[in-house]
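hey can u check if this looks right to u? its 130 residues, i copy pasted from the old doc so theres a chance i mangled smth
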Amino acid sequence: MNQVFTQFGAAPLQQKISAGEHQFVADVSTKLGGANSGPSPHELLAAALGSCTGITLKMYAQRKEWPLSNAIITVDINRTNQIEHFERTIELIGNLDAEQRARLLEIANKCPVHLALAGQIQISTQLLNA
């Protein structure tokens, strides 16, 4: 995986993000003092979970040669009492039987981002130029 770099962007709270050869921005709403020029960090986190789920489901279905034509994943994040609650819904499109659908739900819960978020996370921070 590529390192991800962020730095201040052009808008008041915008962050320029580089991930390998990809560049994009994150920002917050104007209500919070940003310019709403990109998704918020929480929206990027939800996108990471949703896209990882979709990739994992597609790879598994392709390997099994199951007729999964699409998976539409919706992720909402809410914070209550210092706990982040992720609500993920998955719509499987294709001529799948009940057993295949149940197995795909199990597989969705094994996507790497899901496992990272549901597991124990450690964050270490170093201050440069100190």
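The mean pLDDT is 96.
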